[in-house]
Amino acid sequence: MNKYSHIDLRVTSWEAASHFYESLLPELGFTQTYHSADWKVFAGEGALPDVPYFAITEDPEHRPNGNLIGFWASDREEVDRIAERVKQSGGTINAGPQLFPISPTYYAVYFEDPCGNKYEMVHRLN
Q1: Which residue has the higher pLDDT, 118 or 125?
Q2: Strands of the chain, DSSP E
Q3: How would DSSP label each residue in 1-23?
Q4: What is the mean pLDDT of the chain?
Q5: What pLDDT shows up at residue 1?
Q6: First CA to last CA across the chain, in angstroms?
Q7: C-alpha to C-alpha distance for 41 and 25, rounded to whole angstroms
Q8: What is the pLDDT of residue 84?
Q9: Could you give the dihedral angle defined by the CA atoms of residues 111, 65, 19 and 92, in that order, rounded to the nearest 10 degrees?
């Protein structure tokens, strides 16, 4: 059983980050939205609370740090496609997409949202 439930994420400005998340999260399978005044919720297929979701709220005092959220890719092409989506939606590519010396097949892109939160999209065979 996958124990993943959700991520509660802070952004310094929803206005600055909204295009990024509205573009990226559906590409990662978070296709349903349950937005309120305080929370923007992007969920997987199915009914809450039984599906994974990504909840975002604005906190002007939030300061990004070294934490990183990683997503699996089904192949290298998906890593490349997500990297393009990141660039088109206002994110910043920090490294890749490329092979990294973590393992011989570790192909990834590291990126940030417009508020500085860090992510990785990775495909590897082993």
Answers
A1: 118
A2: 6-11, 32-33, 40-43, 53-58, 68-72, 92-99, 107-112, 118-123
A3: -----EEEEEES-HHHHHHHHHH
A4: 95
A5: 55
A6: 21
A7: 10
A8: 98
A9: -30
